[in-house]
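Weekly sync, protein design subgroup
Attendees: M.S., D.O., the rotation student, P.L. (late)

Item 1: inverse folding check
M.S. brought a backbone from last month's batch and wanted to see whether the design step gives back something sensible before we order anything. D.O. pointed out we never logged the input encoding, so this time it goes straight into the notes. Structure tokens as presented (82 positions):
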């Protein structure tokens, strides 16, 4: 299973996609309109809820539909393990 996760992460890095279910603060804050505080809010939200779709980012305080639209091509979600 760890090998599959590593392969997925490697492919994500090559494609430039940020997985909002697994990305760290540095990777999340590289997105347009997402700084360290919003990246921390994403991480805090996903510690309780995992993202099943990119659109669920709007549930995180401070992140709206415009921010999601700006980054949609650079975002992905891995399978929810909850």
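Designed sequence read out in the meeting:
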């Amino acid at each position: 299973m760890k090998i599959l996760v590593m392969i997925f992460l490697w492919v994500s890095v090559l494609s430039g996609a940020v997985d909002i279910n697994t990305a760290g603060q540095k990777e999340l804050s590289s997105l347009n309109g997402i700084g360290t505080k919003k990246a921390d809010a994403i991480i805090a939200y996903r510690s309780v809820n995992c993202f099943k779709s990119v659109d669920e980012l709007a549930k995180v305080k401070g992140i709206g539909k415009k921010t999601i639209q700006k980054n949609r091509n650079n975002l992905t979600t891995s399978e929810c393990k909850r």
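Discussion: DSSP finds four helices and two strands in the chain. The radius of gyration is 12 Å.
Action: P.L. to compare against the previous round before Friday.
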